[in-house]
Structure formats: structure tokens, C-alpha cells
Amino acid sequence: MTPPETEAPLDQPVVNHSAVDRFDAVVDGWFDRLRGTEPADRVLYALTELGDFGLIWVLLAFVRGLRSEEDERAAWRFAAALAAESVLINGIIKTQFKRERPVVQEPRPHKMRIPLTTSFPSGHSSTAMVAGILLSQRSSKPTKVALFGLGGLVAVSRIHVRIHHASDVVGGVAVGLTLGAVARKLWPLYRNR
């Protein structure tokens, strides 16, 4: 005797989740353990806000620019490089993917700016990696580690605040590392070295 065939009810759509969707769901589940807790919410919301428009990176570059005229020129070159990166990411690359941002049902614990651009790749993540590569020129090893550590925190803050999927952040990191390497080779902040 063969068992009767069962069918999904007609009112429930069949959903085939891709590997990317499953990855995003797993990482989002990890962050659910931190969401709604302090100081995690306060710190990660602050980092995501400081990452807006590359603010934290431009501030670091211009603080370093106070050391000498050469460092000041490097800070201006850095700001121009970040502006070019932003145009490329937000004006060209994101328009090719048009991925929707995560849907948030519950209220956010802290105020934040909600971006108007699409989700893939994460601009905060890309900018953080470009900044890490460019600002690490003429930096000590501990400073390089701190720059990339801060960049990583800014990147993952975007998952925590539910502005990006985890795969958006991974994509942003990859694009940022590539753009940073190209920028450092073609237009280094310091001309000698």
C-alpha cells in the first residue's frame, strides 16, 4: 500500500531559499542574541552613525593631518578618494543590484538615519576597508590592526541595526578591499614611499 501524496496548502507559497538567503538568516540569528541588549545596541548604533558618509574616517585623516603639511595634503587626498568611492558604490554599483534592505518590524532602540539607496553592497563596509588600506600607509602595526578592527566593527554594525544583510557586508568588504588596493597603487596618500 502506498502512502497518499500530500500537497502544500494552496495559501502557503513554496519558498526556495538560496545559499545567500540561508547565510543571511544564520548571521541575522547570531545578531538576534545581541539586539536589544546594552551596551551592544548603544555601541553598534553609534558606530553605524559614525560611519555615515565616512565621517569617522575623514575625522581620523584630518586629525592625523594636524601633524604636518604632508599629512594635511594626505588627508585631502584621502577625502577625495572616499568621495570617489562613494560615487562608485552608491551611484553605479548599487544601481546594478537593486537589492532590498532588510525589513524591520519592531521599533529601533536608538535613532538613526535610514539610507535611501539599495542594499548591496554595503557602502559603510566598503568605505571602512578603503579607509583601512589608505590610512594604514605610514602607520605602525598596532595602528593598522586598530584601523581594520574599527572598520570591521563599523561593517558588522550594519547587520546589527538591520540596515544590511550579512551578504551585503561581505560584498562591501570585498569591493572595499579591491578599491582600496587600486586607490593605494594609483593615487597613494603619500607620494614618496
Automatic annotation (TrEMBL):
A Pfam family reported for this protein in Swiss-Prot or TrEMBL: PAP2
InterPro entries xref list: PAP2/HPO, PAP2/HPO_sf
Limits of the Phosphatidic acid phosphatase type 2/haloperoxidase domain: 76-184
Protein name per the record: Unannotated protein
Organism of this sequence: freshwater metagenome
